[in-house]
Amino acid sequence: MTFDLATIRAQFPSLSEADDGMPRLYFDNPAGTQVPRQVADRVADCLLYKSANMGGHFRTSELAGIVADEARGAMTDFLNAPSADEIIFGQNMTSLTFHVARSIGRHLRAGDEIILSRMDHDANVEPWKLLARDMDLKVRWLPFDTETFEFDLAILNDLFSDRTRLVCVAGASNLLGTINDVESICSKARAAGAWSFIDAVQSAPHVVTDVQKIDCDFFVCSAYKFFGPHQGILWGRRDVLEQLEPYKLRPASTELPWSFETGTQSHEGMAGTAAAVDYFAWVGDTMAGRSGGRRDQVVGGMEMLFEYEKQLAEQLITGLGKIAGVKVLGISDPAAMNRRVPTVAFVHDSHTPAAIAKAMAKRNIFVWSGHNYALEAAEALGINDSGGAVRIGAVHYNTPAEVDVVLQALQDILA
To answer: What is the pTM of this model?
Structure first.
């Protein structure tokens, strides 16, 4: 079996779109990916034929319940979670983090400590900083090396104390692309008696996730980053979730996972999330030759796709390195592409990130500029005051030819 790029691209209707005769080049993927047709079909099917609240004795209500069950089953396979009851859906990762932080906070006392990362998206920083402000907690910071763009976990060892209660870190940086060793980080947290909270919004679309192997306590991601709809997902370890008091309405269920799902959920978002997981399984089945269950197919599909994405990342980074005035902010060693996702940030010595992004947009090449909500990372790199960085993010539906177009456009713009 081989990776068939033409067949992959045929699944995504938006890839054939053009504006004023210029094809769209989607390199804005770290902020949100395009969706395959089967995701849109599943969302439409839910809205058109299964639209009802759950818990009723009539058919559409029963179908809505099936949609929710299927979504939890799909995410159980995607994350290798022990139980579907540990899968909690919400509006997005940020909302879920604020929500569960409130419950976690009831287990903390003034003077307790939280370890945060200078590399993380603000969604895994500000909820905890606000909790620390409100409860008189102490925040300790894990810095990253601004030359290697990775953590030195020996520094983490020195941050623990007998008051450490929580460690929050990203699976991968949304600005630098670095894949973090969350398994080691969670092991250190557990040894210190602290809970671990992993923001996997950027890692989940690219690398295989196994929450049991990572051995974390909380794991959050967003389906719209892995070819699904705008939907947030939180996995929590059952014995930890059962210790927390959910903030909920009085008539709402007291049982997991519903006790942590406020109000009526986006059933269409849940349907689309299941379809996104099934898309990975389809790749694993039809292209990677995995004939086992859905979990095995998802693993096979994601491993195949990441191998291809590493090639795109290397091509992009190598090309950027040949453009005068460009500095790549992230791991750039061709032998180390397995330690990063294909999200590539760079700065130029005479062109602002916003000006570059605008010039690219005129060519219908979609990229982002700024801090991309990675405020702490941008501050550590000293790029906040100069407009942040240009961020180019490839995924498996992008082509080497598209990367060449991006590089040529940058050469022309930056000449």
So the answer is: 0.97
